[in-house]
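Q: What would this chain look like folded?
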Amino acid sequence: MPITYKKLWKLLIDKEMNKGQLRELSGVSPNVIAKLGKDDPVAMESLIKIAEALEVDFGDIVSIEGKENE
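A: My prediction, written as structure tokens:
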């Protein structure tokens, strides 16, 4: 599934935050941040923690781009 977290990275820029600050604020592991950086899928629980920490909706941090090649 072509998941992207571009919205999350744009949001961090707007909030003048870096990935380390996001990790501390949300309580997710460094592995989760690394997976996000590679647009790899992560557990829904981790995404919810991030959304709650940033006080945004889930759709404000993750999206699906196009369709996979068949």
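The mean pLDDT is 92.
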